[in-house]
Design brief:
The complex is a heterodimer of chains A (about 500) and B (about 325).
Chain A (H helix, E strand, L loop, with lengths): L1 H11 L2 H19 L5 H12 L4 H26 L5 H15 L3 H35 L3 H15 L7 H15 L2 E2 L6 E2 L13 H19 L1 H9 L8 H22 L5 H16 L12 H16 L1 H7 L5 H12 L6 H6 L1 H32 L4 H20 L3 H18 L5 H23 L6 H4 L1 H18 L1 H15 L1
Helix pairs in contact in A: 1-17, 2-4, 2-17, 3-4, 3-15, 4-5, 4-6, 4-13, 4-15, 4-17, 5-6, 5-12, 5-13, 5-20, 6-11, 6-13, 6-14, 6-17, 7-20, 7-22, 8-20, 9-10, 9-18, 9-19, 11-12, 11-13, 12-13, 18-19
Chain B lengths: L1 H12 L1 H8 L11 H4 L6 E5 L6 H17 L3 E5 L6 H9 L6 E6 L1 H9 L11 E10 L1 E6 L7 H10 L2 E5 L5 H12 L4 E5 L3 H9 L5 E5 H9 L3 E6 L26 E8 L4 H16 L1 H9 L3 E5 L1 H22 L6
Parallel strand pairs in B: 1-2, 1-3, 6-7, 6-8
Antiparallel strand pairs in B: 3-10, 4-10, 4-11, 5-8, 5-9
Helix pairs in contact in B: 4-11, 6-13, 8-13
The chains are: A mainly alpha (about 500), B alpha/beta (about 325).
Chain lengths: ~500, ~325
């Protein structure tokens, strides 16, 4: 393995490849920072440029854009409460609270360092165990995915700061919004009201931007104190000793979780940051800090997300099967170069396989180098007077929403979602569980129905398979804990004592 | 309304690029040389009714760049994904027939949808004028590597005795209809398990979760080569040089499985014939360039250039053939 990694670094550290890794990471960061503009659109735009490049250079640059965008998205989520993707929703929960308290610098630094640490570890995992881990991914069939999603939904109620009842209501509302679109089994249109744009469902990014970012602007404009809070406070840029103490172990836990979940091609990476956040809330000794800027609730999910983004390469590199739309574009880029990704690629194109793995680490290092000095600059951005800030945010949100499908419809979705987000916030309902329900609900339904089709309607399929059975057992225990009144009372007592 | 749409569509294609440039992070070195020169002419817009990265997108982008000089104007690719291609195709049908808009359609958007969807917002042939057929892709029947069936005949025998399951890339797709044709013709007991795209369907076939899957061959070629999937037949006229062990559909005893996916350009009905001929010639010339050909072959396409008139005749045959298959299988989609 060391020999292989040496070959990889030999490839990745060539001047040309270093340059394109840097360029990719830089472009990725830039588009990640702009709300709504995702890596998919950028990579498809830049794809023709890669035709003339060496295959390894092309893929290194595209990979750089991919994880650059992962990182850049956190910046906007922290500073402006504007998540551009699923993981950003979690980042925004604690990260934006930290920014409001003048700890934006620390939040950005923790995100950068956490991401780098996670990238380093999961790159090593991909290098050491990538091919072997493929069988893990393949052992996850529809029943296992269903059980995983069910567990995710049950535990997602932990995301709520306040009333469990309201959290459950938000998850259910999210699931209902997620059901809009074409039924995959029959092709029937559900709740589309004859609008063709709804045939593929409500767009997640448009919904998230509206619920979080735009409704935040409405709230800020109504309540001037809020906006003063965002702008005026500026603390130390670096992390304090105490923040390190909380962030570092959270980062390690997040990395482990993200690496494992990222291997699963069916949306595993998207729930890794949610999962990490839930974990941190569950095991923390200071739950009262959560929702008010707990750094461990930021560092954990950031690490989990980045680790997941790296290990998502495993199914791509070993099976040639893309696990998301960005990966699909990379397969396209390789195929155009005449390279068919798959197990044989490791033997047939060792310099490509190991060069990419080494470049992942190099790319993560570059992200750290690009972003740490920028922390100060980004924080300065918060000093821009709000009257200039919010119109530009709105413009970028509209551009971003439009560019999702090149359709004005998604801008309307975003506007509708911002109204919904405002009302929900006023009612004291949190929007994060809604988004989790929106993402997990339809996936859960899809896998449930597929599992039932395959088992010919036999529900035992979920219990007979060990992985699915144990995941469902954990979900059942979590559910019991949540609704059992005696345990709840004890928990409340414990909280009260701690607070006192 | 019409003008506003055109204005916006012209706006957005450069949008991401503009946004990149606005951040000041992308140097001018990346800008393509042809861009500045061609600014005066109205661009030709190719609507791709699919998200970036798929086969239609690869095809459109490979041609767009090369057809530019011959047409003397820029060619922009406009991704209008959604509803299995219907949104983009409908947008093309509603565009002005002035020779500035064409759409890259395929066997679904411009043939099978007519029979399958009662409420299709356009007519697959009456709303369009054929421009050029570009390429085809073969379908193949694949089974997991550890499948007990070594041949198509063995799989059919198994399906008559016991229950089989088959994956499809999407309900109502060619993958679904062709497999269901096999099921109906051979009277198999098989359950359809639809997926959300070719990648998850291939994954579950590799994992042995389903018994068989009819896929576009390029999407599974790598897995077949690496022995993770076994192809029991390919719907090609002759065996492929790279896969001499895979029998053709006819050799495997099921010639009716030789149904190809195809890709071609269409203009809105009423587009002047002169404009259509000019675009067709430029696109087919670009398609014939050695570099483009090599790139598209690598992506798994079989080039099949046809001029407007023969392409129109081909489309009529295909509409009839798919109508027959849809009638046999009873697969329908709500529009």
């Amino acid at each position: 393995m060391l020999e292989n990694l040496a070959l990889g670094f030999d490839v990745a550290l060539s001047f040309q490849n270093l340059f394109f890794a840097f360029l990719g990471a830089l472009i990725g960061t830039a588009i990640g920072v702009l709300p709504g503009l995702g890596p998919t659109a950028t990579i498809s735009l830049l794809l023709p440029l890669t035709f003339g490049q060496e295959p390894v250079t092309a893929i290194i640059m595209l990979a750089g854009i991919y994880y650059g965008a992962q990182y850049g998205g956190s910046t906007t989520a922290i500073l402006l409460n504007l998540p551009g993707e699923i993981s950003g929703v979690v980042t925004a929960i604690e990260g934006h609270q930290m920014a409001k308290q003048g700890r934006a610098g620390a939040a950005l630094a923790a995100a950068a360092i956490g991401s780098f640490f996670a990238g380093t570890v999961s790159t090593a995992v991909v290098a050491a165990a990538g091919p072997a881990l493929t069988s893990v991914a393949l052992s996850f069939g529809p029943p296992e995915y269903f059980a995983l999603m069910a567990l995710g939904l049950v535990v997602s109620c932990v995301l709520a700061q306040g009333s469990v009842f309201k959290a459950v209501a938000m998850v259910v509302l999210g699931v209902m919004l997620g059901l809009v679109g074409t039924d995959i089994q029959t092709g029937q249109q559900r709740f589309t009201f004859g609008v063709p744009e709804l045939a593929d469902g409500i767009n997640f990014v448009a919904l998230a931007m509206g619920l979080f970012g735009v409704s935040e602007i409405i709230l800020n404009l109504i309540n001037p104190e809020n906006r003063e809070g965002t702008v005026a406070k500026r603390g130390r840029l670096w992390l304090t000793k105490e923040e390190w103490r909380y962030a570092a172990p959270a980062s390690v836990r997040g990395t482990l979780l993200g690496t494992i979940l990222g291997i699963l091609p069916g949306g595993g990476a998207s729930i890794s940051s949610f999962g990490s956040y839930m974990l941190e809330r569950k095991i923390t000794r200071r739950p009262e800090r959560f929702g008010k800027g707990a750094i461990e609730g930021l560092a954990g999910p950031e690490s989990a997300n980045n680790a997941g983004a790296q290990s998502a390469f495993i199914p791509l590199l070993t099976l040639g099967i893309p696990s998301n739309s960005v990966m699909a574009l990379m397969v396209g880029a390789l195929i155009i170069q005449g390279i068919q990704p798959g197990p044989r690629m490791i033997e047939a194109q060792p310099e490509l396989f190991w060069g990419l793995i080494a470049s992942m680490w190099v790319g993560n290092l570059m992200l750290l180098i690009i972003n740490l000095p920028m922390v100060g600059l980004w924080v300065q951005l918060l000093r821009v007077p709000y009257k200039f800030m919010y119109p530009s945010i709105l413009v970028f949100c509209c551009i971003g929403a439009y560019s999702l499908n090149n359709s004005v419809f998604d801008i309307y979705v975003m506007i509708g979602a911002s109204g919904l987000g405002y009302v929900l916030t006023r009612l004291g309902c949190e929007t994060a569980p809604l988004l989790l329900g929106f993402v997990l609900g339809p996936m859960m339904e899809e896998h449930l129905r597929r599992a039932m089709l395959l088992s010919r309607g036999d529900w035992m399929t979920f219990v007979e398979r060990p992985i699915s059975a144990s995941l469902l057992a954990v979900a059942a225990i979590a559910l019991a804990l949540m609704i059992s009144p005696s345990i709840r009372r004890k928990k409340d007592q414990a909280l009260a004592e701690e607070a006192a | 309304m019409q003008r506003r749409t055109l204005l916006l569509s012209g706006l957005h294609s450069g949008l991401a690029a503009t946004a990149l440039a606005a951040t000041g992070l992308v140097g001018t070195g990346l800008a393509r040389p042809g861009l500045a020169r061609a600014q005066a002419a109205t661009p030709l817009r190719i609507i791709v009714p699919a998200p970036p990265g798929g086969p239609t997108d690869i095809l459109a982008r490979a041609l767009a760049e090369r057809a530019q000089p011959a047409l003397g104007r820029p060619v922009v690719v406009d991704n209008r994904a959604g509803a299995g291609g219907i949104i983009g195709t409908e947008a093309a049908a509603r565009s002005a027939p002035d020779g500035d808009t064409i759409v890259l359609g395929h066997n679904q958007t411009h043939a099978s949808n007519q029979a399958m969807m009662a409420r299709l917002p356009y007519h697959v042939s009456e709303s369009f004028a054929p421009v050029a057929k570009l390429a085809t892709v073969h379908h193949a029947l694949v089974v997991p590597a550890n499948s007990p069936s070594a041949t198509l005949a063995a799989l059919i025998a198994r399906g008559k005795q016991g229950r089989l399951t088959y994956a499809s890339s999407q309900a109502g797709s060619a993958s679904h209809v062709i497999a269901e044709t096999l099921v109906r013709r051979e009277k198999l007991d098989a359950t359809h398990v639809p997926y959300r795209g070719a990648a998850p369907a291939a994954t579950d076939t590799v994992a042995g979760i389903v018994d068989f899957y009819i896929a576009t061959f390029p999407s599974v070629a790598g897995l077949v080569r690496d022995g993770r999937l076994r192809a029991l037949e390919i719907g090609a006229p002759a065996r492929l040089a790279d896969f001499p062990d895979v029998p053709t559909a006819a050799e495997a005893g099921a010639p009716y499985l030789a149904v190809d996916a195809w890709f071609g350009l269409f203009a809105p009905a009423g587009t002047p014939d002169a404009a259509i001929q000019r675009i067709a010639r430029a696109m087919l010339d670009a398609l014939g360039e050695a570099e483009v050909e090599a790139r598209l072959m690598a992506a798994g396409f079989t080039l099949d250039p046809l001029l407007p008139a023969p392409f129109g005749a081909f489309q009529r045959q295909e509409i009839a053939r798919w109508a027959e298959m849809v009638k046999l299988t009873g697969v329908t989609m709500e529009g």
